Amino acid sequence: MFTQTWNRDHYTFSDGFPQAQRENYHPLPQPPSQPPYQPAPPPIPTESKPTLNSSPSTPEPPGGLKIVHLPRDCLNRFLTIAKVNTARNRETCGLLLGKDRGSKYVVTTLLIPKQHSTSDTCTMDEEELILQVTEERGLITLGWVSYASSCFMSSVDLHTHSAFQRMLPESFAVVCAPTSVPNFGIFRLTDPPGLGLILACNAKEAFHPHPDSPIYTDAERGHVQMKDISLEIVDIR
Ligand SMILES: [Zn+2]
């Protein structure tokens, strides 16, 4: 049975970010006046680039990605759901499901799967129940969200996310860390070089260093945009 594990590194660091993670992190320029922020991947031969109805004030998504609309209250609602686990010093994870609307993807549903967790891990259980929800509702998995103590992608997070992004280039990871600054991040692997590098990594240890490359970057202010749209919560725990 497929089981997905989210895990956080135990690093000692003085300024909010472990050095190894900072070196792999490739932030967008602020403000993002010069998109795209990474080399564009080769065009996808099977489909033409969609025409996006972007206003002049809306930055173009990078690399030919479709825009993803994420309900603005999603993170607060997830934190409310996570509160019970948080009080017990346990992580919580969820899946962000949605629809393909042609020129964009729209997150419509926050699914809280059956899971077991510790203070720094969250593992989804009974994937067949997740598939049942997605198939019954005609939803696709657009991303995942986890509650963590710090706002960065651990090496385990990077490997977890590579499986999502390999299936759908627009996939993104949300890390909520209310007690840290910044208190949340929306990330994706760079492509190139991040996605290929992680997929090719055969390290046996769960936590391990990666080459000093810009492996992941912000998806917010990239192709993920917060919108005032409705969100359905499906909690199957
Ligand atoms: Zn690795």
UniProtKB/TrEMBL annotation:
Extent of Pro residues compositional bias: 28-45
Domain (MPN) ranges: 67-195
Metal-binding as UniProt keyword: yes
Location of region: Disordered: 1-65
Cofactor(s) this protein cannot do without: Zn(2+)
Family named by the database record: Belongs to the peptidase M67C family.
PANTHER family (alphabetical): AMSH-LIKE PROTEASE (PTHR12947), FI19924P1 (PTHR12947:SF13)
Name by which UniProt lists this protein: Mov34-domain-containing protein
Organism, as annotated: Lentinula boryana
